[in-house]
Specification:
Bound molecules: copper (II) ion
Number of domains: 2
Number of helices: 1
Order of helices and strands: HEEEEEEEEEEEEE
Oligomer: single chain
Helix content: 10-25%
Largest sheet: 7 strands, mixed
Shape: globular
Distance between the termini: 68 Å
CATH architecture of the largest domain: Sandwich
CATH topology of the largest domain: Immunoglobulin-like
Amino acid sequence: MNRRIVGAFATVVLGAGLIAGIGTYVSAAKADTTILDATPAGTLETPQGTLKHYTMDLSIYPDSFFKTSSPHPDWVSYGPSTNFRVPAHSAITFTMKQYDSGEPITNDFFARVAGTMNGTININGKDVTKVDANTIGHTFTVRGLSNGKSNVFINVPMPMVPEDKMSENEGEYINPTIVKFTIITGDAGEYVWNCEFPCGDGTLARFGGPMSSQGFMSGHFIVTDN
Ligand SMILES: [Cu+2]
């Protein structure tokens, strides 16, 4: 081959490699395709009578090193999944381990609890209806109107962990704030949830990175018929 053809060939090979690389990157950055199902736990006495009871355990991490392969290991994330499936007309008790630090929240409305059983959440053993708006790590905010039937609005503020209580090692998670709450689900349908604390990238707004991509600070909240 003359030099010119070799050069052109190399360009084509490099180009193909680049396209393959971009394809791999894009598919890796795609939304989280996993779904976490609630675990049956008997029945629970609620203000709406005795309901089927389920539990769901989640964590909120300061990075994504807990995932076996994350396209963005340095991004904050809910885990092990960001898509949750729960039965309709049931009581679901969430236990969330919050490992991240925090700051004042932009909109203090999201420091107040909404949509939980009895209007409270339990933080490290104590029932509260709101948390200090200056010390928010993340929020778990579900909303939506499914088929014009159930209108859902749930807001759970997650208090921050003081920075000096966090591990300095990447992927090591210690001293979580334990946030427990129960919700009573309505009709089946697919809803969305997201975090309302600007915990993402960006010098001014911090709604970029994990806040503007699915699978980190947002996902699906799927309510199914029993
Ligand atoms: Cu967040």
